[in-house]
Structure formats: structure tokens, C-alpha cells
Amino acid sequence: MEVSVVGLSHKTADLSVRDRASISVPEVAARLTEAADSPGIAEALLLSTCNRSELYLVSNNGSRMAAEDAFARAHRLPLEEVRGHLYVHRNLDAVRHFCAVAAGIDSMVVGEHEIMAQIKQAVGLGKRAGTVKTTLGRLANKALAAGKRVRTETKLGEGFVSVASVAVGLAEEVFGDLANARLLLLGAGQNSELIAERLHAAGARSIIVSNRNYERARDLASRFDGQAVRFDDFPSELAKADIVIASTHAPHAVITAEQVRAVLRDRQRQPMFVIDLSVPRNVDPEVGQIHGVRLYDLDGLNQFLRTTREQRTSEVPRAQEIIEREAREFLVWMRSREIVPITLTILDAAEALRAEEMQAFLAETTNLTTRQERAVERLTRRLVHRLLRVPLDQLRELACTPEGAHNVEVVKSLFGVEVAAGAADPVEAEVDGDDLDEDDSEATDETSAKAG
Predict the structure, then answer these.
(1) Which of 183, 275, 265, 260 has its CA nearest to residue 229?
(2) 7 by DSSP, 3-state: which?
(3) Alpha-carbon distance 45 to 55, whole Å?
(4) Which of 53, 153, 190, 215 has the greatest CB tally within 10 Å of its CB?
């Protein structure tokens, strides 16, 4: 079996493409089932955030074509529409990639932390769908371990390390002191909570929170001495807002150009600053063309992030060393699981052949004492084990190389070994750390703007 990843990210696709590939949490189970409903796919995991849509697979066909087909099925998109934006990594490269994603190296905001919770949530959803089992569960553990080590042992996470912190930093750059600015938050999920914390810490005292779940909006607003408004009523708050941050999971624009033009007339043309952290976008891109409005979406934040990204570049080599060690450890574990049943099958076959020849020898030799028979028995056992020791040791080493899957198949062919699927499945690995609660689906259903 091979582990692979196929996906697109902010590095390969602009926001319009990522919009089309976005999958909301309630849809994940069905999409995973569609992806896994193909011969040869044993496990599947979907990681869908604002900045990436990735499908991790365990299969007996790690070809690029098979991976791309699975991605297209899972995302219900014509393959030709996204093929030019897709990357495919296999085995060690796939493991390295997952570890780099967890460490925040591959994120738009290098070193950001939110991706760790998003991975845990993705694995939890995959487990409930029945598509994340032993191998991907263990891979997620290894990726999370790599992410923790990178953040602990390097300075990669210093400075602006999340979309939330960047959004607040950008607001401070525009307005300076936020104490007199009126802020409207659309969404009450994890990202909105992080933004509210940073806004409050930066001195903001007028924070309005609006969410489809009013109770959630009220709870969040109360923590920061803010106010909550029902989602249907937020347009009336636009006229009073200096800064608007949209971080919901609505599948369409909730702020239109027409609304903003009307609002600016009511505001007597006072400027408005809008940040859209949502995928799909919650703010009509045309809003950015309106005089008096500054609009940043996730792609627009890239320019602002360049400086802080460069400041952490020096830490990347150290982070990559950590990732390489963690990735190779996982590959050793995965290949070791595969070769255990192969090794046992080879040893069993050799023992059966030895026993058969021993029986034939004893049938032809009638003058041996019991002691002599036992001595011959021991001799033949030692001989078989010594003959097989070197090739089996080599098998373990060859299995852990980047070409390990191919090497294992060659050895199986040489020895004529057939191993039943699932022969080495141990107890399913648990994800390190608590999975996100079922109740957190509210955040992802309509309010969580995800940063990975």
C-alpha cells in the first residue's frame, strides 16, 4: 500500500479556484465516501481550509491519475477544470508534505497555529465517516507531532502567525489606535474568537458580533464587553462600522456592493475597511472597487504578509530537519507494518519446506537415535534461519527507502508470497489530542474561516 496526497493550495490556485474546491463540514462524510468508493483505496482524509483543499489516500495504486480522479470525485469538479492546479505527492514526499502543513511551513501565514486544530477536526470527521483508519490516523499523529516540535524548537511561530493576527495588524496599520474604531465581526467561530481576542487586546472597545446562531454571537460578544446582533440585522450595523471582518462559512456573498454603496451614503462617505477571511468569499469582490472602501481578501493579505514571512525564513531549514526526521520515522513504521506479514509468510513457507524434507530424510534413514534426530532438527532450523536472516534484514531496509513499496513487491514476487489484505492491521491509532467536539460543527458550518 502507498500513502499519497493530491490537492491545491494558495500556492497553486487563486481564490476563485479555491472557492470552487471548498467543502463545508456537513458535506465531508459524503465526499469522503465518494472518494473512497474506488477499487484500491483503503483510507481517505479530506483537509479543506481557506487556503487548501487536500485529499490524503492510502491505496494500492498511487499513480497521479488515480489520485487526481479521486480528488475530482470528492470535490465534484470536472478534472480538467482543476488539473492544472493540482499537486500529487507519494510516500515519503506525501508524509513530508503533511508534516510541513501541520508545522505551518506551507501556510499563507508561515508558522500559523490554526492548522493544527483543523487537522484534528479533519481526522475526527474521517474517523466518523469510516475512511480514516490505522495508517492515516498514525500519519496525522506524526504530522501533529512535527508541528508541535517545530513551534517549540524554532522561532517559526513568532510574529504574525495566523490570519486572525494579520487581520488585526492590518486594521491597526490603517487606523492606528483602535480604541475609537467601531468593529463589526460577521461570524462567531474559532477565527472570529481569535480576532475578537486580538482586537480587545489592541484596545478595541466597540465590538459588534453577528452570527446566524444568535446565542453563539451573544456568548462571544459578552466575553469582550461587546454587543450581539442577529444575522438578519447586521446590514443596519454596516453604516456604523469602521472595520468589518467577515469570517463565516456562508456559501455566497453576504455583503454586496449595493449594500456598501448605500451604507457609504449614510456614513457621509467616511471610509470603511473590510477584511474577508471566508472561503467561499463572503464579500462581493466589487466592493473593493468602491471609492472609500479598502477590501482585503485572503489573496490580498499575501502582500501584507511578505515582510513577516521573510523574518521567519531563517527558521525554515531547522523546521525542515525536524520534519524530515518525523517523516522518515513514519515511513519506517508504515513499511514495517507491511513487511511483518511478508516476513512471517516467508518464514512459515521455509519452515514447511524444512519440515517436509526432514520427514523425507527420516523416512529414508532408519538407524538414527532420538538424540541424533533432534540434532539434525536443530541443524536444519538453524540453517534455514541463517540463510534467510540477511535477505529479511535487507527487506526491512529496502522497505524503508523512497522506493519501498516497489521493493516490497519485488521481494514478494521473488519469494512467491501472497499476503491477505489487512493481515497486519493493529488497533487503530488515536489522534494525539482531543478531536473537535461535535458542537464545533456550528463554527465550521457557518462561522469558521479556516487559515491553513
Answers:
(1) 183
(2) strand
(3) 6
(4) 53
The one-character DSSP state at 445 is I
- Alpha helix positions (H), 204-256: 214-223, 234-238
CA atoms within 13 A on the CB side of 114: 29
Q: Are 188 and 247 in contact (CB under 8 A)?
A: no
Give, for 301, the enclosing helix (H) or strand (E). Answer: helix 301-312
The domains located in the chain, with CATH, are: 2-159+324-330+431-447 (3.30.460.30), 163-311 (3.40.50.720), 335-415 (no CATH)
What amino acid is encoded at 197 in this protein? E
Nearest to 261 by CA among 272, 252, 251: 272
pLDDT at residue 157 is higher than 80:
no
Of 74, 87, 59, the residue nearest 3 (C-alpha): 59
First to last CA, the chain: 28
Q: Please write the tens of the pLDDT for every residue from 364-381.
A: 888 889 999 999 999 999
Quote the CA–CA distance of 209 and 217 in Å, as a whole number. 6
Strand duo 87-90 + 2-9: pairing: antiparallel
Map residue 443 onto helix, strand or coil: helix
Task: Say how far apart CA 111 and CA 159 lie, in whole Å.
Answer: 9
Q: What is the pLDDT of residues 308-331, one digit of tens each?
A: 667 677 788 999 999 999 999 998
Cell 520515522 locates to 329
Establish whether 50 is a catalytic residue. yes
CB atoms within 10 A of CB 286: 14
Query: Can you say how many angstroms the Cα of residue 73 is from the centroid of all Cα atoms in its chain?
Result: 18
Cα distances (angstroms) measured from residue 447 to each of 91, 151, 186: 35, 27, 8
Q: SS3 sequence, 138-179?
A: HHHHHHHHHHHHHHHHCCCCCCCCCHHHHHHHHHHHHHCCCC
- Identify the active-site residue in 3, 50, 74, 132: 50
Sheet holding 272-276, edge to edge: 227-230, 206-211, 182-186, 243-246, 272-276, 293-296
Angle between helices 316-364 and 370-399 (to 10 degrees): 150
- CA separation for the pair 344, 189 (Å, rounded): 51
Strands (E), 277-346: 293-296
* Global pTM value: 0.64
